[in-house]
């Protein structure tokens, strides 16, 4: 299905080029006669072997379980007409790996057992990021409902729970907090301060809020394919726009 859709998109691209750039219309027709009605060759789709549990960067909302009315961490559900809001557990979501689900469950247990009901309003949502050997959580706090002394108490509970309490068994290696208004700045509470990714055997340092691919294996396939198509040599110049932490450009350089 994706291969067929890609062919349609290329055919639409050919029509757009011919319409908006008439001098190229003849060249486009020549290319389409060579490439089965498309303006260029369409290779087979390349896909990773991991099709479930692949996502390594997830955001979860905080609220109440619709059945138990206890604090819950998961995916927010809305029915605006009925003014219905609830949090659903992520257990059945195939794209989320078990270790991220475990971190969510541990944080939810902490809310239920170590904090008062009113303390839940201090936390707005939870970010969980994982790599091959790290599991990091960022607690996004509500800036409008958190006096400084309460924020410090909340953070101390989180730190103790995951460093030496019941949450230690979840495998969380780092805990950060951040104020919703200042998402670019995170406060380190416990564990490793950075994560590492290893695309094509490179070691790339990632900071808590830094961008990186949400499917590492698929990203590697993309990097390999781009390098294969372009065939860079020693004096090639590669401009990597919107590069994030720069893995594509670094892989080309390697």
Automatic annotation (TrEMBL):
Domain of life of the organism encoding this protein: Eukaryota
Catalytic activity: uridine(54) in tRNA + S-adenosyl-L-methionine = 5-methyluridine(54) in tRNA + S-adenosyl-L-homocysteine + H(+)
PROSITE patterns, sorted: SAM_MT_RNA_M5U
Record keywords: Methyltransferase, S-adenosyl-L-methionine, Transferase
EC number: 2.1.1.35
Family: Belongs to the class I-like SAM-binding methyltransferase superfamily. RNA M5U methyltransferase family.
PANTHER family referenced in this protein's UniProt entry, alphabetically: TRNA (URACIL-5-)-METHYLTRANSFERASE, TRNA (URACIL-5-)-METHYLTRANSFERASE HOMOLOG A
Main EC class the enzyme belongs to: transferase
Name recorded for this polypeptide: tRNA (uracil(54)-C(5))-methyltransferase
S-adenosyl-L-methionine listed as a keyword: yes
Keyword Transferase appears in the UniProt entry: yes
GO annotation terms (biological process): methylation; RNA processing
A single MF term (Gene Ontology): RNA binding
InterPro entries to which the protein is assigned, alphabetical: SAM-dependent_MTases_sf, TRM2_met, U5_MeTrfase_fam
SUPFAM superfamilies: S-adenosyl-L-methionine-dependent methyltransferases
Signal sequence region: none
